[in-house]
UniProtKB/TrEMBL annotation, chains A, C:
Record: active site: 127
Protein known as: Dihydroorotate dehydrogenase
Family as reported in the entry's similarity comment: Belongs to the dihydroorotate dehydrogenase family. Type 1 subfamily.
Keyword Flavoprotein: yes
Reactions catalysed: (S)-dihydroorotate + A = orotate + AH2
Organism taxonomic ancestry: Bacteria, Bacillati, Bacillota, Bacillota incertae sedis, Caldicellulosiruptorales
Domain Dihydroorotate dehydrogenase catalytic: 3-283
Top-level EC class as recorded in UniProt: oxidoreductase
Entry's Gene Ontology molecular function annotations: dihydroorotate dehydrogenase activity
Automatic annotation (TrEMBL), chains B, D:
Keyword Ribosomal protein: no
BP GO annotations: 'de novo' UMP biosynthetic process
Name of the featured protein: Dihydroorotate dehydrogenase B (NAD(+)), electron transfer subunit
Cofactor: binding details: Binds 1 [2Fe-2S] cluster per subunit.
Top-level taxon of the source organism: Bacteria
Family assignment from sequence similarity: Belongs to the PyrK family.
Keyword annotations: 2Fe-2S, Electron transport, FAD, Flavoprotein, Iron, Iron-sulfur, Metal-binding, Pyrimidine biosynthesis, Transport
Residue positions binding [2Fe-2S] cluster: 220, 225, 228, 241
Subunit structure: Heterotetramer of 2 PyrK and 2 PyrD type B subunits.
Keyword presence, Ribonucleoprotein: no
Organism: Caldicellulosiruptor obsidiansis (strain ATCC BAA-2073 / JCM 16842 / OB47)
Cofactor(s) the protein requires to work: [2Fe-2S] cluster; FAD
Domain FAD-binding FR-type: 1-100
Amino-acid positions noted as binding FAD in the UniProt annotation, renumbered to this chain: 53-56, 75-76
């Protein structure tokens, strides 16, 4: 069964990509699973300078999901290029650098530095856990357009724009990204959320709100992928709460060319394998010849 | 580290809300170092609880691995309802370990509440290496005491305190330790317990090395998600799951 | 323990209200539980004319939640007034009429008819399951302002405006409602969502998308209540995924004066009782003298 | 209707993926009418599955209530793992019932798959009232057959079809019924089964009254949430849980 998918001329051997921020730079998970299994790996969000991230607590569990507020802790682009990328490059999988600027110029600088060294870059216009940049830009279609356009100009590799779900109409962001020349969009990033410890009456996340991920957000994510699929022609990378191959298939039917898995990695590091196998079996049973036939193939 | 499906051998209540679980795993038993923990997926189908639960390996005996835990929330409650023969998914061994390549030294160890569990393996190892080990154990009351006989078997001195004085000294375990401590007496100190206890120990500014095992909420347990950060000196960030859980107590901020 | 709360001069004996659309007009649940337990009951959404609602399937289950697309099936305002209200009026609980227009004028007409007969009206500017009115109006702060203003003019009782979470910034809606004279706001209505049957590749909801409710949406709802609490002075009625008293208390700490319970009624009809008792016990243990001390009493 | 915590007496596999569950409940047994169902909360703590699951009462014997079900998804799987002595939360009896105030008549009953379950109680009642009852049962194959002996004990004639012919007639149960039907022979027809079967029966445009028990996804099960709507004649909307589950087959749209 052919699981190969193509995004802007880049061939992924299968549609399963590790989601940014849940997989570090692959090193830790490489001890548990074969990274070659992945169609691609999106790195932990990278910034120009090293960041120590947000204060504790950064994590809490809620019904069917987790809220995180890591706040883009990362070693900075230089350390990424020197210390992390060579390791990742050893594997037969596409490397996607998730980049995070706090201004248009920073996004451009990051793109200039990493785009020649990776297969794709993912412009994170949706981080809910930083006070500038991220979602602050990403909620505004004009900003999405502007940043995408500039990044495209300087990027040596295809550009994915990662969209935030915390908006009235995500398709406006998708259309803005497409118009600006994005090669693909990825969605959704986490949904802004909050939980309170009723004993201490303190928020369970130090920054008060954080980003909700995991199964709880899946039906919202599937809806958004479907909405975007109707509005843009560029490939969509879908994610949000995928726990197994059935969830992944839902996203593909809704219009996703590829999918990313995040939170599930913490629970079941074998998820990539199970999802890949599950999709393959499904395609066979349902009589499809290739996964491409399934993308957006919804019966309305 | 490995992902292992293990079959529960025993899962028994040993005190108020406190359980001792064991299973056989040659791999874990062989690779275990005192201080290591595992990240347990209690129910593969569950979305609430969703994450794995980090629990220290308390000690090993042959191929048998022992884990002690307190029922505090949904995950540990579910775990306490599992019985012999049921399978759980265990990721481990994880984390660093207490520094135990010392021999023929005097060592003090302080444990409070469930922080006592990982100290069993530590005491065993230190004794195996020919050290003299004094352990200070703090419990809430006599009903919440556990593994005391085990420590008495292993250690040279076992000193107990309870908050209400229902057994041993009345009061805080750090106070008992402080009264017994001198620079000459102990070469190194290890500790594990609730944050207030660790903070109090840190505030003693001991003139000897002191290592503490810490806790932070964890998602991956292997250093990938960066959820379990802890501030070190000079604006450094460590991760409790992969750089820890054991740290030089003076090197990290305990809030 | 004093559980009484006040909204625009109307005293609710406790803060637990049955959420609109999950409780019909009380008749069915009255056979299972004592309706006098409720601080208030918000009725099934009422329209001027009878509506038969959306086609089947209208319901599906997802991780930690349900998606519904009932589409405001109801007997129309006349039948409500004649056949349903007299029954509801027998109980010692505040009756809130949930009204749904497809134009400003319809909202006004509904308000004129029902407001003299009930304790409060809840202007539903957030139904995701109709093609006009509802959320289409409710996403636009100007429309929220306009409709609230006109409804206030003609209403004989206090006016609650029910807000949609499907927006970039729910506080804009809250502020618009407050400025227009709303006596309270209630939030959140359901979140637009979608699920697909991977065997048939059909959406599990006939109208393709529906509204997500239940525990999955709780952390999003708590966040929105907290955000609104910081921006408006009028009371907030919080809801979204409340399953037990702990969840209810989270909403109150986040800033809700009262709470509504919806999906949980389907699962545990005793929830109202358990939540009321649970809040009471909590207040006692924590040393509060009244529930009012808890509203918005968050430790940041 | 009432909310009842009942203790499982038996929960046994009776065919491929098919289970028969029973518990004692005087209240349900006394108030049961054939066609009624219950809405079962399988696990109070669970948020996935979240909703109750509607299942027909198959029959009662004394105080004992029997429910038959097929494992099709998460809820029924969980239910099948429950054992004797465990408690489930049952809301019922719910819905209307088959019209059974007839006596000394010839009745035909058609059942397909799990739709067969509620027909046991119906047949018992009709026989009690002195009717002659012919039952037509459609199964996939001989491995998925259940309760056949029970029907043979109760009914005058038990006709069986399987899709693959491994037992009884080969083919569709509606065909067998059609071949046996005549206006003179039967006064009334009852049926329960998958939608295609009910649709085929409706399309026969029988010259006698025909009542069908229907299914729709349900949240509340009591008529409050309006999720389980079904279109009737003249743009009327009914609700399967409270107006049904049994309807005059000509009065509702079966899609
Ligand atoms: C490295 C490490 C070793 C540990 N060893 C032990 C041990 O040997 N025995 C023992 O009883 N407990 C131990 N704990 C604490 C144990 O992980 C928590 O008690 C447990 O996760 C609670 O889960 P729950 O579902 O019952 O509680 P809930 O409160 O329902 O859990 C909610 C979330 O918070 C997390 N959480 C809750 N309490 C803690 C905590 N104290 N530390 C970290 N995360 C927490 C849970 O993992 C979960 O993600 C250890 C923690 C860490 C980090
Ligand atoms: C009035 C009534 C009586 C029924 N009686 C029986 C019976 O006696 N024996 C039996 O085996 N089955 C019966 N069913 C069908 C039974 O309700 C479903 O098979 C069951 O809910 C499946 O749950 P699940 O979690 O295993 O499946 P899932 O597919 O995981 O369930 C997902 C959701 O869909 C709903 N659902 C799935 N299938 C059906 C269905 N066919 N009808 C209604 N809702 C469905 C579930 O309730 C749940 O909300 C009856 C249904 C109704 C409405
Ligand atoms: C702990 C954590 C850290 C994350 N960090 C990033 C990040 O650095 N950059 C980014 O684009 N997305 C980040 N995300 C979002 C995920 O990539 C993904 O969009 C989201 O978690 C939804 O997918 P899931 O439900 O499968 O986890 C992070 C998510 C989690 C849980
Ligand atoms: C089946 C169903 C029908 C609903 N109908 C209405 C409605 O008519 N009017 C309205 O304002 N909200 C309606 N809602 C939304 C609820 O009132 C509530 O805002 C939402 O379900 C979130 O709360 P919950 O998670 O506790 O259910 C409906 C919800 C459900 C599940
Ligand atoms: S828990 Fe993921 S980095 Fe420590
Ligand atoms: S299931 Fe709620 S009305 Fe029928």
């Amino acid at each position: 069964m052919n699981l190969e998918v193509e995004i802007a001329g880049i061939k992924l051997k299968n549609p399963v990509i590790a989601a940014s921020g849940t997989f570090g730079f692959g090193r830790e998970f490489s001890k548990l699973i074969d990274l070659n299994l992945f169609g691609g790996i999106s790195t932990k969000g990278i910034t120009l300078k090293k960041r120590t991230g947000n204060p504790q607590p950064r994590l809490c569990e809620v019904y069917g999901g987790i809220i995180n507020s890591v706040g883009l802790e990362n070693p900075g682009v230089e350390a990424f290029v020197n210390d992390e990328l060579p390791f990742l490059r050893k594997f037969d999988t596409k490397i996607i650098a998730n980049i995070n600027g706090f201004s248009k110029e920073e996004f451009m600088d990051l793109a200039k530095i990493v785009s020649p060294l990776v297969d794709m870059i993912e412009v994170n216009l949706s981080c809910p856990n930083v006070k500038e940049g991220g979602m602050v830009f990403g909620k505004d279609p004009n900003k999405v357009y502007e940043i995408t356009k500039e990044v495209k100009k300087v990027s040596a590799c295809p550009v994915i724009v990662k969209l935030t779900p915390n908006v009235t109409d995500i398709t406006q962001l998708a259309v803005a990204a497409e118009k600006a020349g994005a090669d693909a969009i990825s969605l959704i990033n986490t949904i802004s959320a909050m939980a309170i410890d009723i004993e201490t009456r303190k928020p369970l996340i130090k920054m008060v709100t954080g980003g909700l991920s995991g199964p709880a957000i899946k039906p919202i994510a599937v809806r958004m992928v479907y909405e975007c699929f109707k509005k843009v022609k560029i490939p969509i990378i879908g994610m949000g709460g995928i726990m197994n191959h059935k969830d992944a298939i839902e996203f593909i039917i809704a219009g996703a060319t590829a999918i990313q898995i995040g939170t599930v990695n913490f629970i079941n590091p074998n998820a990539v394998y199970e999802i890949k196998e599950g999709i393959e079996a499904y395609l066979e049973i349902m009589g499809f010849n290739s996964i491409r036939e399934l993308v957006g193939n919804i019966n309305i | 580290m490995k992902l292992l499906d293990v079959e529960i051998e025993e899962n028994v209540k040993i005190a108020n809300d406190i359980f001792l679980l064991s299973f056989e795993s040659e791999y874990l038993a062989e690779n275990f170092k005192p201080g290591n923990f595992v990240n347990i997926l209690i129910d593969k189908e569950s979305i609430y609880p969703l994450l794995r639960r980090p629990l220290s390996i308390s000690f090993v005996e042959g191929k048998r691995v022992y884990i002690g835990y307190k029922v505090v929330g949904k995950g540990t409650k579910l775990l306490s309802q599992k019985s012999k023969g049921e399978t759980i998914d265990v990721l481990g061994p994880l984390g660093n370990s207490f520094l135990t390549d010392i021999s023929d030294e005097n060592v003090a160890i302080i444990g409070g509440g469930v922080g006592i569990f990982p100290l069993v393996g530590l005491c065993k190892e230190l004794k195996n290496k020919g050290n003299r080990v004094d352990i200070f154990l703090g419990f809430r009351d006599s009903n919440s005491m556990f593994l005391v006989e085990k420590f008495k078997d292993i250690c040279d001195n076992t000193l107990i305190s309870t908050d209400d004085g229902s057994c041993g000294y009345k009061g805080n375990v750090v106070d008992i330790f402080k009264n017994n401590f001198s620079k000459e007496k102990y070469k190194v100190v290890f500790c594990c317990g609730p944050k207030p206890m660790l903070k109090a120990i840190k505030n003693l500014k001991l003139p000897v090395k002191c290592y503490a095992s810490l806790e932070e909420k964890m998602a991956c347990g292997i250093g990938a998600c960066l959820c379990c950060s802890i501030k070190g000196k000079d604006d450094n960030v460590y991760h409790v799951c992969s750089d820890g859980p054991v740290f030089d107590i003076m090197e990290v901020e305990i809030e």
